[in-house]
Amino acid sequence: MSERIIKYAEAIKEATDQLLADDKRVFVLGLGVPQGAGGTTTGLHSKYPGRVLDTPTSEAALTGLAVGSAISGLHPIVHHDRVEFSFLAADQMFTQAAKWNYMFGGGNSVPITIRIVVGRQWGNGPQHSQALYSMFGAVRGLKVVIPSTPRMAKGLLISAVREPNPVIILEPRWLYQTKQDVPAEMFEEPLSKAKVVRKGRDITVVAYGDGLVAALEACDLVGKDASIELIDIVSINPIDHETIKKSVMKTGRLLCIDTTSEAFGVGSEVIAGVMKELALKQKPVSLAAPDVPCPTSTALTEFWYPTKADIAGTILRMLGKPAIKRKLSFEELHLAPSYTHPV
Amino acid sequence: MSGTALDTKTLIKAYERMLFLRVAQQELVKLYMEKKIFSMVHFYIGQEAVAVGVCDALQLSDKVLGNHRSHGHYLAKGGSFRRLVCELLGRSNGSAHGKGGSMHMIDKSVNFIGSTPLLGSVAPIAAGVAFEQKYNGRNAITAAFYGDGASEEGVVYETYNLAALYKLPLLLVIENNRFSINSKLKDRRSARYNLKTIVEGFGLRYERADGNDYHDVHSKAQALVQEIRAKKEPAVLECMTYRHMAHSTPLTEESYRDEDTLEHRLKNDSLKRISNQLIEHGISEKKLSAIEDSTRASILKDIGFALTSPFPVKRALYTDMYV
After folding, report:
1. pTM of the predicted model, to two decimals?
2. Is B321 domain-assigned?
3. Interface test with B, best of A23, A58, A139 (most B CBs within 10 A)
4. What is the span of the domain harbouring residue B243?
5. Does pLDDT of B1 surpass 50?
6. Prior bond of A238 cis (ω within 30°)
């Protein structure tokens, strides 16, 4: 077994460490960054003096400062620990960074990377459990990625920092403890490309973030009963419709997984992209959270998030196969996965 | 008024620079009224002493950013008028190739880094530009212009704190023309609102200048710029001025400006003041009008060039979203 099995948060820290060592233009700023930011920057403050900066609780100003420094050629990595707080800097992300190059007719690079922690966390309720993916997908001029695995978390961060355009990385907090074999050296994962993570013939499943991990677990539950092609969408801005269409042309079936409300969601966008051009064997299916805010009580969140059992059941139903009975434990339903991706 | 009196040569130069801004915009007003400009325009007429007074205190390597009303800032920093007017007319050889228009001025060859119309948004961006100067140990500083309305936005107060905390080489210039898009100062601020106390409370140096007086703006800007450069600490310069026109049209009346008549504005006009000073220095009115004529001729030449410049082609729509 490899010695390189590390956690998602550790993969982010490793990439950040290597980027800081590699390029003097790189610096990190955000609330609590010197204190470790969930394990993603631990120890870097003392290793790189003056380059891992704490900030006042001033999301708009700190993000604007990063935009200005990027316009001047630095490569800031901004960290927002919750997506709701990043929206206090919506103007700087959506209206300044995203439009800067276009509104000046090109030649005005904004090489900023904004890391935003999103989504599911038990006990956090209607506000702090938001993911708001579709908001980021809708704004032209940004590149937006969602790392679903530790390897993607490292490779996408390195690509983002080396990218001349503004990149938003939406990191599902739910995945911070998941593990994977991650190469020690620096490597890049393409920013605007979907990834076929599992090849199959019968059905195309499109997922991302914590939904991708749930889908991987669902594949294990289904076992040999279906040949599933699983696609990690990776980028929601732009969406790599070509990779998805290529798969659906082969399977003729499409299931999209969203771990947030369905309305204006990533799944709806993927389905629209496919249906405009392809005829399927059956209607596409969207498995998403209901169109209400996410509540706090576990008695209610149990029905909010699509589970691995829901995904497995939907796949089997779409293929006309008998359902499997699987009662999930409290831990499976409500605690963040410590899933280790197979090598 | 502050500082020592200016010599005639300096005064003429300042007059020429302010006059250029004034006449350029008078000619832009004509183009706007002739419906040749389909770019939302916020005219800078009346505020010329601020842009020229501040930019004359800066070096070429210093960087400047502006807001929605930035023709003056751009030109005072040395931005190309020809490319400005091409931009306002939507031509492909405009400063932003027709994609920006009046609210998105840029000329990086003279370190005019960009103007952006979301009011206070420019303050932290300018702080970031200053952050890079400090990070890389440069001697240059950054100045940003915004108005009294913008200075009421939360992000500006956040930026005061952040700039003071990080000790950034940043000059924030507030052009207080006493009116936002819809209202006057006293309808927007408590009677006890005190910007000097606020700014100094955040730990920045504060100066207030008569924004209709070139000499006052310039001498205070110069003192602040020297200190910012030497100490790497931010400062705010509030310039009390007038915009002669409405918020975003060439009209001269707005219903809420009852205490600020056109007559009053013209009486305190910055250009009138500097030309009176020149006459006191023995410069003849004839000489002043000769300067105006040659300024206008050069401006009209650039406008003529712009009017015959090509429009962008359709495929340009899809370029430049990403670098």
Report:
1. 0.96
2. no
3. A58
4. 8-181+191-248+258-305
5. no
6. yes
